[in-house]
Amino acid sequence: MKIFDNFNLKELNTFHISVNAKKLVVIESENELPQIQSIIKNNKYLILGGGSNVLFVNDFDGIIIKNEITGKEIIKETDEEIFLKIKSGEIWHDIVMWTVNNNWNGIENLSLIPGTAGAAPVQNIGAYGVEIKDVLEEVKIFHLETQSFQVLKNQECRFSYRDSIFKHELKDKTFITEIVLKLKKKNHVYKTDYGNIKEELSQLNVTTLSPEKIAQAVIRIRTSKLPDPAIIGNAGSFFKNPEVSSKKYLEIKNKYPDVVAFPLSNHTYKIAAGWMIEKLGLKGLEYKGAAVHSKQALVLINKNNATGKDLFDLSEIIINKIFDNFGILLEREVNIIT
Ligand code: FAD
Ligand code: EPU
């Protein structure tokens, strides 16, 4: 365990917002977790992985618990399946590359998502037709108050689109210490229907699919539209894509026949929030140091030494404009830390 007082968090969040925390505690082994209680006492605290889904609006008047618990192992194999136990501080994309290089199938569509393995179940990360819930067996957690470990099976995590129990009942109460994934060693099942994966594969002249080829296609698509946080501060999609009733969808479709939306199984529609933002001419909009990314309107960027408040205020402007024009209240995907 390492402890630092009055620590600047600029390098610990992908928006690169320069704020200070009262204390930073770096956890390197789950054996250190029981000591945390005496450190946090009555202070406010935040568990932090790669900082790629948080926006610090002010200095953080509390303790940042930074997860650096690493390790990975194969825990079980059958003829067809492989079970991987991954410590929560592992870098998610490195894990994806490990699986792809071994020709294990299941998470190749989730390539290049920044952050740690332990944060992946928190918002049930998803991309290109796959969500972590599709391959997640279980999650091991440490209850900070009761100081006890517990294993939650997939169903107990109550996963849905960008949501889980970790954003509700267990929010800020538990530290995720490891996850177990179940992947396929053979009889691979590939998801290539989303967006332009098929076009990208054909451009790469791929005739035989493999986890590696799909990862390659996904990485190329993502790199073409999402800003690299090492160069331009961002946290991926700032808002969730809203789910609306079919009545609401038809109302919008009547007014804007080119609306981009996907039917869901329960007679509702998911509207592409990026399309709505672009439709209102907000792509590229700048507000103080913050801006709407010019290649992907759902992504807000730190264009020029933005403060967390600049980004938050820009998100408010967008929420209000979308509400006034479409009657839809956008929900932020990024965790706002005050
Ligand atoms: P942090 O930002 O550090 O934390 C996020 C939340 O999880 C916080 O509330 C934190 O308290 C909590 N948390 C973190 N670790 C733990 C833990 N061990 N135990 C308990 N709680 C914890 N997301 C997608 O779903 N799909 C995408 O395609 C995608 N693309 C992105 C592209 C870019 C360029 C960027 C910058 C972000 C993208 N994201 C995407 C968002 C982000 O990468 C994911 O949400 C990721 O899982 C966050 O991981 P992290 O370690 O950085 O979490
Ligand atoms: N679109 C526009 N203009 C834009 C952006 C998007 O018109 O500026 C329309 C296009 O028609 C496009 C469609 O919206 O085809 C969907 O866009 P895209 O495929 O880029 O995906 P998204 O809906 O904007 C979601 C996730 C991403 C994930 C991608 C790929 C959410 C909130 N975001 O974005 O996740 O990588 O799909 O699956 O669900 C993240 O969560 O941080 C994230 C990046």
Could you walk me through the main structural features you see in this protein, from its secondary elements to its overall organization?
This protein is an alpha+beta fold. The chain folds into 3 domains: 2-67, Uridine Diphospho-n-acetylenolpyruvylglucosamine Reductase, domain 2 (2-Layer Sandwich), CATH 3.30.43; 72-225, Uridine Diphospho-n-acetylenolpyruvylglucosamine Reductase, domain 3 (2-Layer Sandwich); 233-337, UDP-N-acetylenolpyruvoylglucosamine reductase, C-terminal domain (Uridine Diphospho-n-acetylenolpyruvylglucosamine Reductase, domain 1, Alpha-Beta Complex). 22% of the residues lie in helices and 29% in strands. 40% of the residues are buried. The mean pLDDT is 97. Bound molecules: flavin-adenine dinucleotide (FAD) and uridine-diphosphate-2(N-acetylglucosaminyl) butyric acid (EPU). Residues 14, 46-54, 67, 88, 113-116, 118-120, 122-123, 125-127, 166, 175-176, 226, 229, 234-236, 335 line the site of flavin-adenine dinucleotide.
